[in-house]
Amino acid sequence: MSRNAAVEALKVVVAGVWAWKTPPSRRLKLFADVPAKDRPCAFLHEGGDETYTWQTGAIPKRRIEVKVFVYIDARDPKTVGAVLLNDIMDAFDARLAPKGADAMLGRNTLAGTQYMARIAGRPIKVPGDLDGDGLLIVPVEIELP
Questions:
Q1: Residue 76: C-alpha distances to residues 38, 69, 111 (Å)
Q2: Taking a C-beta distance cutoff of 8 angstroms, is the pair 40, 18 a contact?
Q3: How large is the angle between the packed helices 3-15 and 81-96, nearest 10 degrees?
Q4: Residue 100 has what DSSP assignment?
Q5: pLDDT at 36 over 80
Q6: Residues 6+ apart with CB under 8 A from 127
Q7: Residue 91 Cα to chain centre, angstroms
């Protein structure tokens, strides 16, 4: 299984998490380069760790870390950035939960493109209370066969 196929499958999942103003991209942009009118939006950043784990035999388990960056516009005083970020995080939890045949396995295989994808680590939430620029970083670990 290729890394790109697994990340593209994750991108399809992320596209269904929320009603993004622009489709998710694998090319991260600086916050300043994303106008408020184009938020909420999501970017998949692949600059994280990659780990090989050897058990028995000559085939390793490969893990790649993808961070999903979510930018929101919380400038409207009626918008509570933390509430919106919590709703988006809940949507990530629901979309990455195992369903169908994956539920029997107890893991999300992203339609069979890899062994498992899951949120791993600590998401970072910046609600944008001070400047209106809200940020959510969701660390996703993909384990390849």
A1: 15, 21, 38
A2: yes
A3: 130
A4: T
A5: yes
A6: 74, 80, 81, 82, 84, 85, 134
A7: 11
Write down how long the chain is.
145
- Closest by CA to 125, choosing from 66, 81, 74, 94, is 81
pLDDT band at residue 99, thresholds of 50, 70 and 90? confident
Cα(18)–Cα(132) distance, integer angstroms: 19
Q: Identify residue 34 by its one-letter amino acid code.
A: V
> CA-CA-CA-CA torsion for 68, 69, 73, 75, nearest 10 degrees?
130
Whether the upstream peptide bond of residue 60 has omega within 30° of 0, thus cis, is no
Confirm if 101 and 19 have CB atoms less than 8 A apart: no
Joined together, the tokens standing for residue 63 give 């893990």
**DSSP reduced 3-state for 10:** helix
Quote the tokens at residue 137. 């970083």
- For the cut 90, the answer to whether the pLDDT of residue 53 exceeds it is no
- Backbone φ and ψ for 72, nearest 5 degrees, come out as -125, 160
Q: How far apart are CA 138 and CA 123, in angstroms?
A: 5
Reported pTM: 0.91
Q: How far is CA 60 from CA 52, 53, 72, 127, in A?
A: 6, 5, 38, 39
